[in-house]
Design goal:
Blueprint: E1 3-13, H1 19-29, E2 33-38, E3 44-51, H2 52-64, E4 70-79, E5 88-90
Parallel strand pairs: 2-5
Antiparallel strand pairs: 1-3, 1-4, 2-3
Length: about 90
């Protein structure tokens, strides 16, 4: 199975609604590696690495988000798979 990497920016009401923790749980269930974090401008940024179909499933999730989220846009940048992550984490730096 081919592997891929997606660098995404999610806009809308995505902070303070458990978006990051829900994303982390979903990623772990799908064996996706990478990270997710809040941005100062109110968006959420994430990097997902894994099997093509699993990454696409994560991107589908990003369009919905957590139950309290209201996603207005998902910007997806496809990148070369690097295999640099050992798990999936929430990052807290700006």
């Amino acid at each position: 199975m081919a592997k891929t990497r997606a660098h995404v920016f999610i806009s809308g009401r995505v902070q303070g609604v458990f978006f990051r923790s829900t994303t982390r749980s979903k990623a772990k269930n799908l064996s996706i590696t990478g990270w997710v974090k809040n941005l100062k401008d109110g968006r959420v940024e994430a990097v997902f690495e894994g099997e093509d179909d699993k990454v696409k499933e994560m991107l589908d999730f990003c369009h919905e988000g957590s139950s309290a989220a209201q996603v207005s846009d998902v910007e997806i940048n496809w990148e070369e798979y690097q295999g640099e992550f050992s798990g999936f984490e929430i990052r807290y730096e700006w």
